[in-house]
């Protein structure tokens, strides 16, 4: 007999969104040794608009990405990953913002720059670890 999967969509935990965000910020800023003082209402509004198909794990991953990539101690709407802020995600539509693929060139370039920055950070960390543990 197969068990029916429990559907715990975003609606089930959306009331807890501020508590979850605060918990993840505290945990992940400590993990990454990057103090974050707060998240702005603009960023929270974007979180509320997003349907969260990946559930709480997706929220955690989004916050971790924001913490790693931000240069400030405040997470704001500009730090929210683009896949959350795109018109498809939020239901907003802005004329001329997205082409046939649904992704505006400026959005794609910004996301690419974020990934390149993260890649450089990871490569620098690997280099530093390699130097720290070099037995030569």
Q: Can you walk through the features of this model?
A:
This protein is mainly α and 136 residues long. It has one domain (10-132): Orthogonal Bundle (Helicase, Ruva Protein, domain 3), CATH 1.10.8. The protein is 58% helix and 3% strand. The protein contains 7 helices and 2 strands. The chain has helices spanning 10-13, 17-31, 41-49, 55-69, 82-85, 87-90, 105-132; strands at residues 38-39, 74-75. It has a two-stranded parallel sheet. Helix 2 (17-31) crosses helix 4 (55-69). The longest helix has 28 residues, at 105-132. Residues 1-8 and 89-100 have low confidence and may be disordered.
Short summary of the structure?
The chain is mostly helical. The chain is built from seven helices and two strands, in the order H-H-E-H-H-E-H-H-H.
Spell out the blueprint of helices and strands.
Blueprint: H1 10-13, H2 17-31, E1 38-39, H3 41-49, H4 55-69, E2 74-75, H5 82-85, H6 87-90, H7 105-132
Parallel strand pairs: 1-2
């Amino acid at each position: 007999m197969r068990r029916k999967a429990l559907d715990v969509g975003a609606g089930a935990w959306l009331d807890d969104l501020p508590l979850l965000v605060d918990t993840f910020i505290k945990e992940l800023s400590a993990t990454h040794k990057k103090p974050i003082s707060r998240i702005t209402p603009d960023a929270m509004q974007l979180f509320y608009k997003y349907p969260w198909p990946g559930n709480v794990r997706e929220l955690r991953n989004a916050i971790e990405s924001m913490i790693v990539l931000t240069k400030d101690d405040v997470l704001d709407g500009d730090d929210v990953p683009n896949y959350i802020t795109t018109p498809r995600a939020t239901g907003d539509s802005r004329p001329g913002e997205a082409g046939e693929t649904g992704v505006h060139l400026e959005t794609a370039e910004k996301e690419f720059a974020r990934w390149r920055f993260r890649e450089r950070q990871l490569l620098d960390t690997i280099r530093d670890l390699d130097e720290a543990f070099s037995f030569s």
